[in-house]
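Following up on my earlier thread - several people asked me to post the actual chain instead of describing it. Fair enough. Here it is, all 197 residues.
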Amino acid sequence: MTIYRGPNPFHQLTPAVKGLVVACGVFSLGGMIFPDFIIPYLGLTPLYVIEKFWVWQLFTYSFLHVNFWHLFFNMFALWMFGPHIEEYWGTKRFVIYYFSCVLGAALSQMVAPNSLVVGASGGIYGLLLAFGFLFPSAVIYLFFVFPLRAIQAVLVIAIITFVFSVASSGTGIANFAQLGGMLTGFLIFKISNRGPI
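Reply from S.P.:
Thanks for posting it. Predicted structure:
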């Protein structure tokens, strides 16, 4: 869990962030009410993408969350970091970057073809990396306790996620997807030097 002290944290939601919060809320609620119908079709099962060509799952999985807290913490991070990035880049570039990270996260999960993945974490981790690159001097309180510069916090979170992805199988946490989202964001920055075109 991370919070930061940078530009005014009590900002208004920007258009894309607001749309993502609403979409995630609606789809997640639907998935909680009708899990047997919605989760198998909109969640990400890599084997279905490969064998049945259900390519929409590469994006729709990011709108679903398994319970309230899963949804809350992802949307909290989106609210905390997303508006500053969208204001800096503009809505179009923000959306391109976010869904590129969502796609990269989905593709990274292909290493586990029978897995079922839901959640916006891949996109969120991509945004966290972008925040660290764009606002490196902002202070993030890791786990609400340890103050780190944003770029340092990104590195720590990446290492923690990598360790869990290697050491913790069957936990229900899509760590490869989280790393894939962050790696996609990193590659975008390396290619363009300033984020999405």
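Residues 68-89 form the longest helix (22 residues). That should answer part of your original question.
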